[in-house]
Amino acid sequence: MDSHKLLLSVAMTSLLAACGGGGSDDSDVQGPTQQAASGTITGFGSVFVNGVEWETEQAVIEIDDELGTELELKVGHVVTVYGSIAADGTANADRIEYDAELEGPITAINLDENTIEVLGRVCIYDGNTKFDDDSGISSLADLSVGDFVEINGHLMEDGRMLMVHVELEADEGEVEIAGQISGLNTDMNTFMVANQLVNFASATLEDFDGQPMEDGQWVEVEASSVLGPNDELMAFKVELEEPDYDYGDEFEVEGLIARVANGSIMVSGITIQVPSTVQYEYGTAADVVANAQVEVE
Known about the structure:
The protein is 0% helix and 49% strand. It is an all-beta fold. A five-stranded mixed barrel has the order 2-3-4-8-7. Strands 9-10-11-14-13 form a five-stranded mixed β-barrel.
């Protein structure tokens, strides 16, 4: 594939009322439409996400589930924007949500392979990874084992994360990790995210809405930075992570394909059916493979 993201336009009837063109090319928007978009911030002067400039004057900014400001957002942050796009392509954000996928201490660094490990997740640097200069780092060489970092990125098929943004932070006693539940043991109140064991015996469960906890669910875990006796995270909150599909007319997500199976793909924890009617830009069905960078509408 070339440097473009593969763009898929999919009618996701199982997830949305409707879905159509637009996203990276506003000329197709027949608006006004209500739209949610999950992707990486690429610029400011408003907020640019997935090729769309979102006006933010009226937007509510949520940082880690708390009210925040646009000044706290940075290029490389992976966010979800909820707003409307008018017929002339003007996009106005109603709400922008940001929550880092990974936050904790570095346990290993491999400069030969350009990787670090945080909470059992191997994170990969490439030429597009941005380091937060304000936090005093500009490369992997500036990091040390034990440093506390906040990482945004895209999960790959093997569970590793391709880093988009890395920021050095102070350890305030809490860590976070997002990913799929595996190895759920309801008798022991434990499960795995990546290679990290999580104990949820004392955790508050949020947004499950009566659903039982199951392997394969995408969750965000917040836990003490002090590990338990078996090096497990002692979670105080486990939140089921699902976008607000009912928000509007369209939903789009940008990231790497973490799984291809049974006519569906997973991008950023969202399973999306890919029917034969899908429209492709910058590629074909043959390019829909694990770890391909895509934008799905």
